[in-house]
Design goal:
Length: 266
């Protein structure tokens, strides 16, 4: 279990402006939790604090009852995997080499039989076996993102943190990515915390929504309760118009009450 208790963070120790203010939450197990909110709401900062990349100035993040600030980096990396928003590699690397890197916390770069098996399983699960010897620069955006997810799978952690994994992906690959995340929860019992900007993807695929505003948690709950004008309007400073499809809320990019709008949603 991951529990956040009264966490505060700021741009610097001397800064009076906080990026996180008294944030508390318990991560829903074996589920997809989506962090939503406007730019600068503190979503990425919260991910960094929860994974101890950016230690909290005050408060505590507990991983299975242990303070993440007191855990050895290698031990934490065996429990938590974090895929940042921007993946910048300064070396030319193949898919296979990238996925093998996911085993580093377990073997220190000296792969044994168990490590090779985990790599094979990750490549197979992400349908990348035939592309294992291709260089990342030769892949499409969707294939490249799948390769990074395969690296995360090879790391074999129960908790996966993803910061805007749909960035630069078109609709086809975005849907594919969200379906993959759903499979990781349902088939491999992963717990996933993901930052999403597209409200409809959050509504369609997340089990739990955490809406953030100005470094605080404004509201959290299931999509049916969180994807509402009452929650989203103040969070994004925008008038939301919500419909329903297949039992899930859908954000309309127009005002369905506008008499000049000819689009009809049933």
């Amino acid at each position: 279990m991951i529990e956040v208790r009264n966490v505060n963070q700021s741009y610097s120790k001397r800064s009076s402006k906080k990026t996180l203010t008294d944030v508390s939450m318990v991560v829903k197990e074996n589920a997809i939790t989506a962090l939503v909110g406007a730019n600068g709401a503190g979503k990425s900062t919260l991910l960094s604090v929860m994974t101890n990349i950016l230690p909290a100035l005050s408060g505590v993040v507990l991983l299975d009852g242990k303070d993440v600030r007191k855990m050895k980096a290698n031990d934490l990396s065996k429990r938590v995997a974090f895929l940042r928003q921007s993946q910048q590699l300064n070396v030319r690397i193949t898919v296979n080499d990238l996925v093998e890197y996911g085993r580093f916390p377990h073997c220190g770069g000296r792969l044994k039989d168990e490590d090779h098996q985990k790599v094979e399983e990750a490549l197979s699960y992400m349908n990348l076996t035939d592309l294992r010897h291709r260089y990342l620069e030769e892949l499409s955006g969707g294939q490249c993102q799948r390769a990074f997810i395969a690296m995360i799978l090879a790391q074999d952690t129960p908790y996966i943190f993803l910061d805007e994994p749909l960035n630069n992906l078109d609709i086809k690959y975005s849907v594919e990515m969200m379906k993959i995340l759903t499979q990781l929860v349902e088939e491999l019992n992963k717990t996933i915390i993901v930052v999403l900007h597209d409200i409809n993807f959050a509504a369609a695929y997340a089990d739990h929504i955490v809406a953030m505003k100005d470094g605080e948690i404004y509201y959290e709950g299931p999509p049916q309760d969180a994807i509402t004008p009452e929650v989203l309007n103040p969070v994004f400073d925008h008038d939301f118009h919500i419909s329903n499809s297949a039992g899930r809320p859908v954000f309309l990019y127009y005002d369905e009450d506008d008499p000049n709008c000819e689009v009809c949603v049933s």
